[in-house]
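Recall from the previous lesson that a structure prediction takes nothing but the amino acid sequence as input. Here we apply that procedure to Antitoxin Xre/MbcA/ParS-like toxin-binding domain-containing protein from Labrys miyagiensis. The sequence below is the only information supplied.
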Amino acid sequence: MRAFVLRTSRALAHIAERMPRERLLEAVGAATDTDVLFRSLREAAAFGAEIEPDDPDPLTEALLRGSEMKREMLKAEGGAVSAQELAGHLSMTPQGLGRKRERNQVFWLEAGDGYVYPAFQIGRDGLLAGIREILGAFTVEDPWMRVNFMLTGDIRLGGRRPIDLLREGMVDEVVMAAAAYGEHGAA
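The prediction returns the following tokens.
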């Protein structure tokens, strides 16, 4: 852990030295430490502060943009909760929640050594009605693709977000769109 902190501190110092003052102040003004880090890294990728000229990594900026988009997507709908938090809301143990995850009955994402659960699926009295059916309909297995489906407009749903229709009780429509999501030629 010490080596990680040392190396990332050196990289951030290198970035800060090269970042224009106004961008540095903008990054520091972010709401959380994580947001400061993401803004700094995005700026570094934009002007190549940490990318060595003899070994450029053309994917760095795209990876950072993708990570930030994922964070923003989740933040817009309440973020993600820990297994302990969701299990408590569902009046079950974290082990029981783990079994639900393994049975594909709850949206989840890998986070470090464990899992987090997108908050968008939580209703007043447990999971939103239809979550199980939607997860069962997917042909895609990637957890981020599933979350992306729920939180972005879908042509099969008139451009509306599946999560919004689900909250309106339109389970069958969302299930049909989830079943077609990721198919070749499907929108």
